Amino acid sequence: MQIILASASKRRQDLLKMINLDYKVIVSDEEEVIDKSLTVLENCQNISYQKALNVLKKVKEDSIIISCDTVVCKDNELIGKPKDKLDATLMLKKLSGTSHIVYSCLTVLKVKNQEIIEEYKEVGEGLVYVDNLSNEEIEDWINKGNPYNKAGGYAIQEEFGKYVTKVEGDFYAIVGLPLNKLYQILKNINND
């Protein structure tokens, strides 16, 4: 049974390689719609699930589809991917000198004959503490082209890690994929 990653994320692909998983990528083209009536966590779970369903429509073979959505949450507010330089600046100023939660919501679908026969949903989360960032540090980070296409405008495993003073919880969820939760699901599926 083939394993499909429903994501173009280089970080997620690297994590799957790290655990020696043989997979192929089929990118979801599902629009990420935020429902204001849902919590940040509920939106994250919903987007992850919708991405998996979107890829399911594109798959003919029996498969295991892995989908994940990662969001940054500060004071119960969803902080997404910055749209432009100003957005990135405001985002990083909001995270500077404080802590925030990162949720990575995982969906795994086991599919036979284009029907879902098993479905798993898990949440990995971590608390990230960020140093007080100077205007120069924020500008330097942004000018290197780093904040775009990243929830919260940063990636902990990149140079931004030098500004992180402490992490609590699931480090790999902060990177973008709760690796242990995925591994446990795949072990469970393979034991069937």
Rounded radius of gyration (Å): 17 Å
One letter per element, helices H and strands E, the order comes to EHEHEEHEEHEHH
How many domains?
1
Please work out how many helical segments DSSP would assign.
6
Strand residues, percent: 25-35%
The beta-strand count equals 7
CATH names the topology as Maf protein
Distance between the termini: 13 Å
Molecular shape: elongated
Q: What structural class should be given to the helix and strand makeup? A: alpha/beta
Task: Provide mean pLDDT, rounded.
Answer: 93
CATH class placement:
Alpha Beta
- Under the CATH scheme, which architecture would be assigned? Alpha-Beta Complex
Q: Which range best describes the helical content: under 10%, 10-25%, 25-40%, 40-55%, 55-70% or over 70%?
A: 25-40%
Model regions low in confidence, pLDDT < 50 over at least 5 residues: none
What characterizes the major β-sheet?
Answer: 7 strands, mixed
Tags for this entry?
33% helix; single chain; alpha/beta; 7-stranded mixed sheet; elongated; 6 helices; 192 residues; Maf protein; 7 strands
What does this structure look like?
With 192 residues, the protein is of the alpha/beta class. It has a single domain, classed as Maf protein, CATH 3.90.950.10. 33% of the residues lie in helices and 30% in strands. It has six helices and seven strands. Strands 1, 2, 3, 4, 5, 6 and 7 form a seven-stranded mixed beta sheet that branches. A hairpin with a 2-residue loop joins β3 and β4. α3 packs across α4. The longest helix is centred in the N-terminal third of the chain and has 17 residues. It is elongated. The mean pLDDT is 93.
